[in-house]
Amino acid sequence: MATVETVNGPVDIDELGLTLIHEHFRTTDEALRFQFPHMYDEAAEWDAAMASANGVVSHGVKTVVEPSAMFLHRDAAFSKRVADESGLTVILATGVYTYEHLPQPLLNRSEDQIAEIFVHDIEHGIQGTDIKAAFIKCAADEPGVTPNIEKIHRAAARASNQSGRPIMAHSRPASGTGLDQMRIFTEEGVDPAKVQIAHTGDTDDLDYIERLLDTGCWIGMDRYGLDIFLPTEQRQKTVLTLLEKGHADRMFLSQDYCSTIDWFPPEVEEHLAATMVPNWSMTFLFEQVIPELTERAMTAEQLDQMMVTNTRRWLD
Ligand SMILES: [Zn+2]
User: Fold this and answer.
1) What spacing in Å lies between the alpha carbon of 23 and ligand 1's midpoint?
2) Residue 167 CB burial class (10 angstroms; 0-12, 13-18, ≥19)
3) pLDDT category, 21, cuts 50, 70, 90?
4) What is the whole-number distance in angstroms between the Cα of residue 22 and the centre of ligand 1?
5) Phi, psi torsion values for 307, nearest 5 degrees
6) Is residue 2 within 8 Å of 12, Cβ to Cβ?
7) Cβ contact 216:193 at 8 Å
8) What is the mean pLDDT of residues 34-62?
9) Across-strand partners of 10?
10) CB neighbour list of residue 12: distance below 8 Å, 6 or more residues apart
11) Are 75 and 127 in contact (CB under 8 A)?
12) Which among 138, 48, 52, 53 has a CA at the least distance from the CA of 99?
């Protein structure tokens, strides 16, 4: 029986069911939070996380993959509480979420030494708990694949090779990072079928997407509701075209929703949410995206592939 590590230990991979591949129950800055905890409202964060969790459960979701890593406030105990209170299965990652900055302890370590840190989370558990990471997360964004970013990607690749665990890489299609990221993974000998290039759905450039698919990776059409990167209608057209071309077996649908995010002062955050990303939520897929896709030619089989089968195949 193949199993996958979750916040509640190994689960039969066939039991994951309807899965959101990329959502966050809480994202805050780790350093700021540690130094200035008065800036944060734990009770409000908890309520927001539970509203998201209960919301997705009401739509039949069984599993949420939460790809939070270092710098994105990964918190295994918090995620386990969300899982326990909601009944969801939650799957966590190890890794580093940075677009460029690395702290001295990582600047002064080799790729292999960083890989060892990641493998610890996979083999022994995260943050002193016995909750193990199921996959490895890394990121490249506007600065591109700089030397620091390349280092983390090579460390992620080596941790994957050692542990057999898959990789999820945050990408920025507008900078074409996906292809550079795949080049590094391939150079390191990672099987492309183990790599998911997240946020590929932020572009409707089919040429770029197909070149990425040609490398053999998975793609995340995973930011529905984040209109600032690409409006919903363009995301829909892109997904429908890719479905027509037979790529349901390589795609994931999700929202990259953050139940809390502290990038702006709360009042600005509220204003931005209402004006820039009015539809962004952890349930937008079920309320609008999926019904529309279904009406416009997506089959039940394709949906099942993207939200059930592919998770199993990527994690197995
Ligand atoms: Zn994310």
Assistant:
1) 6
2) buried
3) very high
4) 6
5) -115, -5
6) yes
7) yes
8) 97
9) 5
10) 1, 2, 3
11) yes
12) 138
Output b/e per residue, 267-302; b: 16+ Cβ within 10 A: eeeeeeeeeebeebbbbbbbebbbeebeeeebeeeb
Backbone angles phi, psi at 252, to 5 degrees: -125, 145
- Residues 96, 157: Cα–Cα separation, whole Å: 13
CA of residue 38 to ligand 1 center, whole Å: 25
- Ligand 1 mean position, distance from CA 55 (Å): 19
Question: Three-state SS across 107-136?
Answer: HCCCHHHHHHHHHHHHHCCCCCCCCCCCEE
What does the pLDDT look like over 155-214, one tens digit per residue? 999 999 999 999 999 999 999 999 999 999 999 999 999 999 999 999 999 999 999 999
Note the pTM of the prediction, 2 decimals.
0.97
Coil, strand or helix: which one is 310? Answer: helix
**What pairs with residue 198 in β-bridges?**
170
- Helix, strand, or coil here: 64? strand
Q: Measured in angstroms, how far is the CA atom of residue 24 from the centroid of ligand 1?
A: 7
**Interacting residues of 202 by C-beta distance below 8 A, sequence separation 6+:** 172, 173, 174, 223, 226, 229, 230
Residue whose C-alpha is closest to residue 218's, from 151, 166, 258: 166
